[in-house]
Specification:
By secondary structure, the chain is mainly α. Helices cover 79% and strands 0% of the residues. It contains twelve helices and no strands. The longest helix is centred in the N-terminal third of the chain and has 43 residues, at 8-50. The chain is elongated, with a radius of gyration of 27 Å.
Length: 203
């Protein structure tokens, strides 16, 4: 017994015993997670292909909105979008100046209806508009449409309107509008829309 207590091999075996037990437990956990992952992959495949074939896959994509790898929509398609779709396509294709300008214009027009202002904010439109303006400082059209969209989304003096204004300020809207106006002092529409945006965001 004394020899076992001092034998290096015996000491190592005693130290490794709990580690071996832990390895066995981890292997069992990994096998369990692997089975769960296989089930999730099967369910995803069923959603994309099994529920109505290609049409079912389109329904899944429509529920989650546009993805960055999807082809940019045409201007006509953007003009037909609702608030959530316009905000989603702006986020997904913020690097495409044409889509950015069209989506901002669509959001500005939609938000002339009172109920759409809050819907746009909840869809992340404010942050998406600011991101579009920051992504295209050399595109006067994006700056103009972005200012107009911010002005529309941030209109309102009730509790929800004040929350939108604060959200815009937190997103950097004031700085984005000021930068647009400084970059395009000779563009009358950028100046007009910028003043309107600052009036609403800073009110």
């Amino acid at each position: 017994a004394a020899h076992e207590a001092t034998c290096p091999l015996a000491v190592c075996q005693r130290m490794l015993a709990p580690l071996r037990a832990r390895v066995v437990a981890l292997e069992a956990e990994l096998r369990s997670q692997g089975a769960e992952n296989e089930q999730l992959l099967s369910r995803l495949a069923a959603l994309e292909a099994g529920e109505g074939g290609e049409e079912g896959g389109r329904r899944v994509r429509q529920r989650v909105g546009a993805a960055p790898h999807d082809a940019p929509p045409s201007d006509a398609e953007v003009r037909a979008m609702d608030v959530a779709a316009a905000a989603a396509v702006l986020r997904a294709h913020v690097s495409v100046s044409r889509v950015a300008a069209a989506a901002c214009n669509r959001l500005a027009n939609l938000c002339l209806e009172d109920q759409n202002e809050q819907l746009a904010a909840e869809a992340g439109a404010i942050e998406a508009i600011v991101a579009a303006m920051q992504a295209h400082p050399q595109e006067a059209e994006v700056q103009e449409e972005g200012c107009g969209a911010l002005a529309s989304v941030c209109y309102g003096a009730d509790g929800a309107g004040l929350a939108r204004i604060q959200r815009a300020a937190d997103a950097g809207a004031v700085e984005a509008v000021a930068a647009a106006m400084q970059a395009y002092p000779q563009e009358a529409e950028v100046q007009r829309q910028g003043c309107w945006a600052l009036r609403n965001v800073c009110s």
